[in-house]
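User: I'll paste a sequence; please echo it back and then give the predicted structure.

Assistant: Echoing your sequence first, then the prediction.
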Amino acid sequence: MAEKNESNNSEDGRWTLQGKTALVTGGTKGIGHAIVEELAGFGATVYTCCRNQEQLDQCLEKWRGKGYKVEGCVCDLTLRPQREMLMEKVINFFQGKLNILINNAGILLVKPATEFTEDDYSIIMKINFEASHHISQIAHPILKASESGNTVFISSIAGLVALPTSSIYAATKAAMNQLTRNLAYEWAKDNIRVNAVAPSIINTPLIEAAKKNPLTK
């Protein structure tokens, strides 16, 4: 792989995302934050969201200071109307065409399986699976309009193997993996590639937050 120069383009100029557009959910922390920086560093124009206005403003200020083209808004992905509001903003910002969708936002709550409550199940399912599915649905027209669409789900190794104290989280990631297969099959005709990335444990704020409060991401 060619080494990157300071602008994150390959030295021979072939590796670039100049002119491409991307939406990254949950882009102000952890994996999402790194993805925003990587995409923007390669020249893409990025839109992101989170639930905390102060956190979003701090990130946008830092990114703009680096010369990155990043915009964003506050959005609670547990709420269907807010997901629709997010996509309206994205459609307007990118003038109806989207090249890259990264379904990254997620939460983790660590508990023995016997201790999960109805509320635990609801919130984890809404953010980790329902929101990703819904965002993908309503992004489909503008991904198709780009004639080169890419959807990436940030899954987890927990969706592939058994791990302790994360049964509901693991179930949402397993569902995400199957959704990836189905959408890849259905949307190939629309020139939309669909993939999932399933990392193992990564040292991000999500890990510590999960031990205290699942709603902090």
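The longest strand covers residues 45-50. The radius of gyration is 17 Å.
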